[in-house]
Amino acid sequence: MEEKLMLSLLQKNARMKITDLAAALDESKDNVIQKLTELEQKKVICGYHTIVNWDLTNTEIVTALIQVNASPEREYGYDRIASHIYKFDEVDTMYLLSGSFEFVCIVKGKTMQEVAHFVASKLACVDGVTGTSTYFVLKQYKNNGVVLIEDEDGKNDRLVVTP
């Protein structure tokens, strides 16, 4: 079974029916179910998610990208500091990066004040954190490969490429 193809198909459409997935992979339904279970147990598949364009709802959600500077710990590097940070409910996503800061966190809250309070009272107080910079998202254009807005003329402005 082509594992990469299965993962790619599911990443594009997590609601794909098992029967359709089996047909696309030219496998039996039972083999697909067994492989999915195996990939879930190994944490290769970590969940099935829906992309929501919250701007089109009456729900107030504030998203912020927070750069975090930190000093590595002997024997642990950045892992223990990261563990303290990503366990906060406010932290949606977190990455260790190369460059001028160590981590970037994507934080969600109901208001800018709520996010600011999280940064000041929780994040900045974590041992090893030496500084933060917060950037509030003003508009979301694309999320996980999905374009969330329509172009002004309703068409795609990509250039046509011909051989």
* Percent range for β-strand residues: 15-25%
Main beta-sheet annotation: 4 strands, antiparallel
**What is the ordering of alpha helices and beta strands?**
HHHEHEEHEEE
Give the overall average pLDDT: 91
Verbal overview:
- The radius of gyration is 20 Å and the shape is globular.
- Strand 5 (142-143) and strand 6 form a beta hairpin.
- The protein contains five helices and six strands, in the order αααβαββαβββ.
- The strands form two sheets. The protein has a four-stranded antiparallel beta sheet with strand order 2-3-1-4.
- Helix 2 (18-25) packs across helix 3.
- The chain has 163 residues and is α+β, with helices and mostly antiparallel strands.
- This is Lrp/AsnC family transcriptional regulator.
- It comes from Massilimicrobiota timonensis.
Write a brief structural summary.
This protein is α+β, with helices and mostly antiparallel strands.
